[in-house]
Amino acid sequence: xxxxxxxxxxxxxxxxxxxxxxxxxxxxxxxxxxxxxxxxxxxxxxxxxxxxxxxxxxxxxxxxxxxxxxxxxxxxxxxxxxxxxxxxxxxxxxxxxxxxxxxxxxxxxxxxxxxxxxxxxxxxxxxxxxxxxxxxxxxxxxxxxxxxxxxxxxxxxxxxxxxxxxxxxxxxxxxxxxx
Length: 179
Ligand code: GDP
Description:
Strand 5, helix 4 and strand 6 (149-152) form a beta-alpha-beta unit. Strands 2-3-1-4-5-6 form a six-stranded mixed beta sheet, with helices on both faces. The longest helix has 17 residues, at 95-111. Helices cover 36% and strands 23% of the residues. The chain contains five helices and six strands, in the order E-H-E-E-H-E-H-E-H-E-H. By secondary structure, the protein is an alpha/beta fold. Bound molecules: guanosine-5'-diphosphate (GDP). The site of guanosine-5'-diphosphate has 17 residues, from helix 1.
């Protein structure tokens, strides 16, 4: 028997610099990646997707929000205030995106001070081993400092992407159950 988590969907927000793989994540989430012609994915132009996923035998509805780094601070802050949980992406091939993730984490902390907001730091593009600029250890250490979980993924290989979504649902449930 599958029970449902909540009446209202969880709002999960994708944050990160441009080019780190947010759209690719959204495509995989929406199922469009399977039929995707690499970058040409119409579905992915939408900023909001809702889907029921099953995690540990329990259904959870997620509304996924994709943000654009160049939308300006205002739009990003709006997402930060309205989201229930965050996937904070950087590319392991791009150190500046790693620094950007730190900035976004600090902004999140400022905007959501009191709560235990579920956040996972996601090092994407781990398939590009030869172009790596950020080591796994650095990512893990950064996540520990930021008090959040850490995972390395490859949207291109569809590696660990669902694990990231499942991880965020587990964190949301932990928070729900501790209330
Ligand atoms: P966004 O700006 O954060 O939405 O980034 P996109 O999802 O548009 O990705 C930017 C580019 O990186 C695109 O060409 C993607 O195909 C590519 N990309 C995204 N994720 C991966 C990955 O895990 N591995 C590799 N090799 N390329 C990726």
